[in-house]
Amino acid sequence: MKLFEAFLGLIYWLKMMSCCSSTNPEDTWEPEDYYPIRQDCRGDVPKTRFIPKPRNTLSARRWHSAFTEDGHLDIGKVLLRIQKGGVHPTVKGAVWEFLLGCYDPNSSFDARNQLRQSRRIEYNDLKSKCQEMEPTIGSGNILTAAIITDDGQPMEDETNSTTQMETNNIPLNQDVVRWKLTLHQIGLDVVRTDRALVYYETKENDAKLWDILAIYSWFDKDIGYCQGMNDLCSPISILIENEADAFWCFEHLMQRVRANFKCTTSTIGVRSQLNILSSVMKAVDPKLHEHLEKLDGGEYLFAFRMLMVLFRREFSFVDTLHLWELIWAAEYNPNLFSRYKSNAAAKKSTNAAGNADFLKQCGKFERKNFRSGQRDNDITLTIFLVAGVLEVKNRQILTEAKGLDDVVKILNEITGSLDAKKACNKALKIHKKYLANKPKAA
Questions:
Q1: Which pLDDT band holds residue 75 (cuts at 50, 70, 90)?
Q2: What percent of the chain has a predicted confidence (pLDDT) above 90?
Q3: Which of UniProt's keywords are assigned here (predicted)?
Q4: Per residue in 147-181, is it b (16+ CB within 10 Å) or e — as a string?
Q5: Burial class (CB in 10 A: 0-12, 13-18, 19+), 376
C-alpha cells in the first residue's frame, strides 16, 4: 500500500513539474512567423542565427507583469530579461520605445497616453505642412524621380506633383528646395530597403516608410536625409503600426546617431567614432592596430558602414533586431527620457553614479561607464562590437591582409556568421579591457 501511495505521489510530482515548466503558447515563436522572407530571396539573405528560447525571452506576459498598477515600469527587470533572451515580436515595438527613451519608465499609464496623443497631434501637423509642400506625402504613393531642378524650378516632364506655391508662381525658399530635392532619393532608397521581406510587397508599407523619412527630413533640417537612415527606420516602421508613434521612435533613435550623419565637404560625421575605435584598438590590441596603420588603415574607414547603420549589412533582419535591443539594453540609462529634454538630466546622472538603486536600472555597459567615471557619450557599445569583429579576424588580418582591400574582403566574410549575443558579450569584455588599459587623462 505504501509503495502504491509513493508511486501515486511520484506521478503527481511529475505532473506538477510538467505544469510548472510548461511554456505559455505566446512565448513560443519562430522568426519566419513574424518576419517572413520572400520565397525567391531565401538564398540571398544572411542566415538567421538567433534561436528563440521561450524560458529566456521577454514575452508579452512578462512585459506586462513588469508594470505596477498605475504604470511604473521595473526597467531593471526588463533589461535583465532582454539581455538573457531578447524580446518577443508582439511587444518589440513597445519595448523599443522605452529602450530609446521615448517614455520615462517612472511615468504612469495616463502620463504616457497624454504624451503619446500630443506627439501624434504634432506629427499630424508636421505631415499636413509637408503635404502642403508636396501632395504625394500621405497619398500612399512615393516619389522616385526628381520633381524640381537644383534652382527650385518644376521639372518639365513632372506630372505627379503640383505644389500650391509653384501654382501661384511663388518662389520656393531654400529650405523647401533642399527638402524637395531629397524626396526622390528617399524613394529610390526605400524601394531598395529590406526587399527580401514579404512585408514590403505591400505598396502601403513602402509609402509608410517613405512618409516617415520624408517628414523627418523636413523636421530635422540641419541633417535632412542621408542614405542609411532608411536602414535604421525600416525595422521601426515594421514593428510599430501607428505611423506617428513609429516616427517619434525613429526620431529618438536618430538623436543617438544623428551626429554620424552630419557631414561637411571636409569630414564625415562618423569620424568621431572612427577615431574612438582607433584609440580602442590601440589600447586593447596594439599589434593589430600597428598592422592596420602600416596598411594605411589607421583611420578605420573600412568600419564606416558597421558604425553608420549599426551592422544592418552584417546580420540578418531578425538578428539585427536582436542585436539592437541587446545594445540598447546594455547602454540604457534610466534618465534617457529626461536627457533628451534638458541638460539637467546629465548632471543628475553624474550625481547618481554612486546610487545602488540607480545603477540597478542601468544596462551593463552604462553601469561600467559610471563606475569607471567614463562619461563620453560618443563611446558606444557599437564601437566595441566593431573591435570584437576585428579581434575575431585578428590572425587572418595579420597574416593575409597586404592592403586595405584585403581587410575589407576579410571583414565581408563575417556576414551572416556572427551570433548577436556572443558579439555583444565579446564587446563588453573588450570595453572592460579598454577601461583598464586606456591612457589616463593628463
A1: very high
A2: 70
A3: Signal
A4: bbeeebebeeebeebebeebeeeeebeeebbbbbb
A5: exposed
Q: Within 13 Å, how many C-alpha atoms sit on residue 294's CB side?
A: 10
CA distances from 50 to 31, 85, 233, 331 (A): 9, 10, 21, 21
* Distance separating alpha carbons of residues 310 and 232, to the nearest angstrom: 8
Domain with CATH 1.10.8.270 in the chain: 112-154+172-260
- Cα(64)–Cα(70) distance, rounded to whole angstroms? 12
What is the pLDDT, as a whole number, of residue 326?
98
What cell does 203 get? Answer: 505598396
CATH topology of domain 112-154+172-260: Helicase, Ruva Protein; domain 3 (1.10.8)
- 161-191 pLDDT, tens digit per residue, is 444 444 445 567 899 999 999 999 999 999 9
**pLDDT the model gives residue 5:** 47
| CB proximity list for 421: less than 8 A, separation 6 or greater | 322, 326
Measured at the alpha carbon of residue 48, what is the angle toward residues 398 and 64, in degrees to the nearest 5? 120
Assign domain 263-341+353-437 to its CATH superfamily. Answer: Ypt/Rab-GAP domain of gyp1p, domain 3 (1.10.472.80)
All three cell numbers of 319, joined, read 538578428
All CATH 1.10.472.80 domain ranges in the chain, comma separated? 263-341+353-437
Give residues with Cβ within 8 angstroms of 208, minimum separation 6.
237, 243, 246
346's enclosing H/E stretch is: helix 344-351
Q: Which amino acid is located at 41 in the chain?
A: C
